[in-house]
Amino acid sequence: MDSMINRYTADRKIRSDDAYTPGDVGGKRPDRAAIVYSQRCREAYPDVPIILGGIEGSLRRIAHYDYWSDKVRRSIVVDSKCDLLLYGNAERAIVEIAHRLAAKVPVHDIVDVRGTAFVRRQTPEGWFEIDSTTVDTPGHVEAHINPYLMISDQARENGATCAREDEAQTVADLQNAANPSSLPSSSVKPLQFVPSPSMPALRGKGTHKVPPRDLSVIRLPSYEQVKSDPVLYAHANRVLHLETNPGNARCLVQAHGEGHTARDVWMTPPPIPLTTAEMDAVFDLPYARSPHPSYADENGSHDGATKIPAWEMIRFSVNIMRGCFGGCTFCSITEHEGRIIQSRSEASVLREIEDIRDKVKGFTGVISDLGGPTANMYRLGCKSPEIESACRKPSCVYPGICSNLTTDHGPLIQMYRKARSLKGIKKILIGSGLRYDLAVQSPEYVKELVTHHVGGYLKIAPEHTESGPLSKMMKPGIGTYDRFKSLFDKFSAEAGKKQFLVPYFIAAHPGTSDEDMMNLAVWLKKNGFRADQVQTFYPSPMATATAMYHTAKNPLRKISRESEKVDVVKGEKRRRLHKAFLRYHDAKHWPLLREALKAMGRSDLIGNGKHHLIPTWQPLSDDYQSARRKNSTPGSLKSKAPRPGQLLTQHTGLPPRKKS
Ligand code: SF4
Fold this sequence. Notes:
alpha/beta, Transcription Regulator spoIIAA, seven-stranded mixed beta sheet, three-stranded parallel beta sheet, about 30% helix
């Protein structure tokens, strides 16, 4: 867990609790723990190489916008002074680096392992540097003249002709036809130029020759540039996201500092995904399946005062895959785990369920989740490895499901069936988030899920109803939610179960106008939803939506100084308003909503009818609580609507009189 996200709310307020700490106690870890721990290790063991890993380092591998200090920070490689940063799932890199260090290879010579970042003074010889430090490309740029080609040859290479020289050529052709003896004899050898063997060859045809990917490095705008220029920040973010497919990603380099402090942060391409056999080997290791004994209470257990809430959540859950090809812009999972799904074998998953059943204290027969970043991407992926390794799309399911994507939920259905038939297993719940646009491709899967694996409520995340914000989130339209809901309702009824969908929404996401939030609130009211908890957009490091938030640019499209501007919801008042729309039913927000609706010219939504969003009246404030009430179970704190015919006063619901 990222130490900042763990410690602060989306409104930058300090949390009093910490689900990852024994006893749920907040404040036990330092802010920016990865940097602090790395520095302490350096102080304690100055000669020991520091290899930094984990999600906090992974998502800060290049210069990044830091929401908590509201500024762009340097790569964590520079700030932590680590020798190597391992980003993403790093099993391969850890093993490789451990072997090399054991063979006494100096850590600074380890510069070719995938999924690493480190500091380098300069680009080594033999590498092609692709300059991507600017977004200004003013029109068509002429290719350099090749000194070894005639202008007409060069023109032909470009698919054009050179009129002047072609004229000369026509004349020469005519002359040669009239006098064949003037043609050069075959013994005359023309001069040939051959590329130097010490230089890697360019690849491709015609003028579109490109350096080999494995020897190409893209130079991003420097830290100093992205810090002072939001457009270059958005551009760097876009380039980073384009270079995330292990099948075609190139190295990236970003300069930090100037003059004598100048150095480059160099990033190798992302790790190659693990095969199923490798995933099984990782998951089949003999894990303790318990928090560290030092966190136990006086009875040696983890159920009392030292209970760790996050452990409770994962204690009986099984991770079946990793990676996500959804590409939701507010989420950073793809930047960490990648877009290619890495699945365990069915046998390995079933073995783990049996292991939990047999070894974990307190198991009652209920598995709380069989999932991963997404519940239903198990064994899904591109139909062809060749196509997959050439693809640079940020999502396989947006704007629609890619025709190359396999959406067969068969292996997952089969695994659910086998898992719930294991001896001693009473129930298998699915707690991970469901990608419902994929699920509707397989009604059989929805049936299986709804009939056997829903505990009354199923949380799903349409995130919004309006196309503006949805397009900035890369999420499907609300029509897909409706399709899923009708399947959910149908199969629940067939199973004789009363089950409910609980949709989740995000307030204040980049690209969301006040009208979008109002429309969402109207949709919620129409569909009878009253959100208990609401999520305001939380700009996490490196996410595309965070780049939108910081720069008001859209990195999903090519960035230029004139490219699309995004409506960014900043400032406490506007973020509060967006949140208030999600909680339209909470009387506390009504004054703010009334004011906003009037300003938006939508006073028609204020009234006491069913079709109105909020009423004209205000209940007596329940902010004040007498000591007696505080110490007792609240009775009816709910606001009461006035009875028909009741005279409205300030005591029965009218807003306070305006002071003149
Ligand atoms: S081609 Fe389609 S399915 Fe294949 S990786 Fe690209 S987006 Fe995904």
